[in-house]
Amino acid sequence: ASTGVNTSAGCPWTATSNVGWITVTSSASSSGSGSAAFTVLANTSASARVGTLSIAGQTFTVTQAGVVVVAAPVCTLTASPAYIAPGASSTLTASCTPAASSYTWTNTGFGTSASSGTVMPSSTSVYSVSGTNSGGSSPTVSVGVAVGTALSSTLDMRTYVPAATEPAGYVSSVRVINNGGVSTAVLVARIDGTTGQVGAWGVLTTALPVDAAVIFTAQQIETALGQTMTASDRPRLRISGVTSPVEVQSLLRQPGGLYNEVSGFQSGSVVKLRYYIPFADMATSGYTSFVRVINPGLTTTSVSIAVIDGVTGATGPAYTLIGNLPGGAAQTIYSQDLEAIIGPIAVGMRPRLKISASTTLEVQSFIVQPGGA
User: Fold this and answer.
1) pTM, whole model, 2 decimals?
2) How does pLDDT run across 263-291, given as a tens digit for each residue?
């Protein structure tokens, strides 16, 4: 680079650099009009920098931009659908942030420029990809595609607390047990708690050995589903073994690290819960109740609630708890919301609750204890 110098004939002048990364390459002194040449070293920092030269008694400023630093990509890989019949195909899609310029696939035959492609496995298979840009390569991520003609078993879990609640101390996990005679892939789908609609299958594992029992965390579940749930979401989960029947335990980790199994429930068109701790007790003892009402059927139903006096056994008037609970849907109702419907219950009282519908319900009753246990 260079800059011109305009001065009278014979007038002497000098050119010097004031910073180490700029070097004057022309003569350090001259006279009359001319130019001063200089070179600038490459800026290896992400920050811009400013340097000066003193030329003919004037300050000449050089501003140099920083290097644009590109982070290595972080990628996810999805399969749609994740469960197929023999002879069907599934589309694999890699999504990377920042964008990847090339991809390294495993078990697909895809080229390095392909961010997606179609596979047609003859049996349950695992596919992997890593994305690369000028900043480096992503960790390898994988996804399974399960192949089968009919699911061996399907179980609907009643309670799921998302990974987003983990900072508050609460989070779900499921323990899947293979009691069949052959290894099996295990699938998971989300059942919307409000509508009861069942989402697409994801693969929790492509091979759960005979007699094995594996715990899958909320993060693993949501990765398999290809979605991140909000802390307020309370969906249900559908778990299925492809080639072998499975058993499933629903676990809830609470503040302090205590795990409780929350698979239990009472069932019927009329359910009389055994125990209820009022909302008022929360302020004095830290204990209170909440219930989860599930409609395992196919038709929408309304749900009513009444209080059964714990001393006399007398049943009070019925109130509408849920106006419309679609088939497959589930709602969690906390004590303060229950008592907004049935009226406040005094500290220390221990009534029962009668929950009724026109179809069979599954009802879970929980007690919140001091510290969240």
Assistant:
1) 0.69
2) 788 999 999 998 899 999 988 888 889 99
Tell me the pLDDT tens digit for each residue of 328-352: 999 999 999 999 999 999 999 999 9
DSSP helix/strand/coil, 340? helix
Do 129 and 107 meet the contact criterion of CB atoms below 8 Å apart?
no
Distances (CA, A) of 295 to 21, 155, 348: 73, 14, 31
Q: Which of 290, 361, 364 is nearest to 329 (CA)?
A: 361
Q: What are phi and psi of 338, to 5 degrees?
A: -60, -45
Residue 372: the pLDDT is 55
Sheet strands side by side (includes 58-64)? 29-31, 12-17, 49-55, 58-64
3-state helix, strand, coil in the chain (%, to 5): 10, 50, 40
Contact 207, 165 (CB under 8 A): no
Q: What's at 337, amino acid-wise?
A: D
Report the candidate in 128, 20, 141, 16 with the shortest Cα–Cα distance to residue 74.
141
C-beta of residue 38 within 8 angstroms of C-beta of residue 23? yes
